[in-house]
Amino acid sequence: MSVGSARLPLARAGHGQRPRSRSPFGPAAPSIVAALGYAVLLAVWLVAGDVLPGGRWFAIHLFTLGVMTNLVLTFSEHFGRTVTRTSGERAAWWPLVTNLGVALTLLGLPTGWLPLLAVGATTVTVSVIASYRRLRRMRREALGARFAWIVRVYERAHGAFVHGAVLGALLGVGLIGGVWYGPVRLAHLHANVLGWGGLTLLATLVFFGPTMARCRIEPGADDRAARALRWGATGLSVAVVLLLATGLSGGPGLVAQLGAGISLAVYAAAASLVCAPVFRAVWRAKPTAPRPLVLGVTVWLPVVAWMDAVLVASGSWRWLDALGVIALVGVLGQAAAATLVYLAPMLRGRTTETRELVRTRLEVGARSRAIGINLGVASAATGGARVVGELPLVGVGLGLVLLSLMATFVVAMWPLER
C-alpha cells in the first residue's frame, strides 16, 4: 500500500523480534474497541443524513455517549492511577456494564420507549458516579503527587456529566417544554461537551499532549494550568446554572444570559492558558504522527471556548450549531484521533520492530491527513453557519473528515507482515 509517493514498510522476518511487555494501556483496549464501534455507527448516521432514526440529534449522542464516554472513563481511570501512583486496575466488567447502559440509552432515544431510556441512562450515570468515587479515593490517598490536581479536575468533569445527565433525562422524558426547552438543552450540552469532555481533555493535555509529540512540557505550565482550571471549572458550573435561568422572561433572563457569557469567558481564559504552552511545546517538537492533530486541538479548543462565550452573551443562538461542529469534531473528535494514533503502535505491536513499524507507517502522510480533518471541520462549520448560501459545505466537510480518519485507520491496521 502506498500513501502519496511513499510505500508503507513491512516487517522483516527474524529482525528485531524481541518481545515487548504488555502495554500500560492494555486495560483500556475494550473501551477503545467499543468507542471505535460507536464511531463506525456515527459515520453511518452522518452519511445517511435523516434517513435513519433519530437523525442528527441521535448522531450527536452516538458520539457523546458512545465514543466520548468510553474514552473519558477509561483514560481518566488510567491517568488518575498514573498521576497518583495508585496500583490496580478497574474491574473488567465495568466497561461491559457501561456499554450496556449506553446501548440501552441509544436504543431508547429514537424509539421513545421511556423504560429502556430510564434503565440505560441510570446505568451509565451510576457507572460515572462509581468512577468519580474511585478517582476521589485515589486523590485523597496520594502522597506528594505532582499531578494529583489533574484528578480533581477529572472529578469536576464527572460531576458535570451527572448534572448534564439529569438535564438530559428531563428532556428525554418530556418533562421540559415550552420556553424552558431551549435553556435546558443549552445547559445540557454545555455540561456534557465543555464539562464532561472539555475539562477532561484540558487536564489531560497538560502532560499528555507533549507526551504524544515526544517532547517536554514547558516549565511551570502544570502549576499555571492547575490554577486556571480551578477557575475554569467553577466558571462553567456557574454558566450552566445561568443558562437554565435564561428561560426567565424580561430583564432577569437577559441578566442571566450576560452572566452566562461572562462565566464562559472565565472557562475560555482557562482553556487558553492551558493550550498555549502545550501548543508552543508541541510546535517545537520533531514531526510525529499525533503532532499535527495535537496542534489542531490546541488551536480549536480556545477558539470554541471564546466564540461560545461571545455567542451566549450576545444571544446569537443560530451560530451555535456551527460551533457545535467544531467542538465535537475539531476538538473532541480530533483529540480522540490523536490519542488512538499515539496508542496504535503499543496496542498492535507485540515486538520491538512491529511497534516501531506501526509508528513509522502512521507518520507517512500524517500532516496531510490532519490538514484534511481540519479543513473538513472549517468547511462543515462554515456550512452550518450558512454564511455562503446553500452550498452543501456541511456534507463536504464531514466527508473530508471521515475520509481522513478512514485513511488513518487503514494505515494503523494494515498487515504487519507479508
Helices, by number, come to 13
Find the structural class using helix and strand composition.
mainly alpha
**Biggest sheet, strands in spatial order?**
1-2
Which series of helices and strands comes N to C? EEHHHHHHHHHHHHH
Spans of at least 5 consecutive residues whose pLDDT stays below 50 are 1-6
CATH architecture: Up-down Bundle
Topology readout:
Blueprint: E1 2-3, E2 6-7, H1 29-48, H2 55-84, H3 94-111, H4 114-141, H5 148-172, H6 181-212, H7 221-245, H8 251-284, H9 291-314, H10 320-348, H11 352-363, H12 366-385, H13 393-413
Antiparallel strand pairs: 1-2
Helix pairs in contact: 1-2, 2-3, 2-4, 2-5, 2-6, 2-10, 3-4, 4-5, 5-6, 5-7, 6-7, 6-8, 6-9, 6-10, 7-8, 8-9, 9-10, 10-11, 10-12, 10-13, 11-13, 12-13
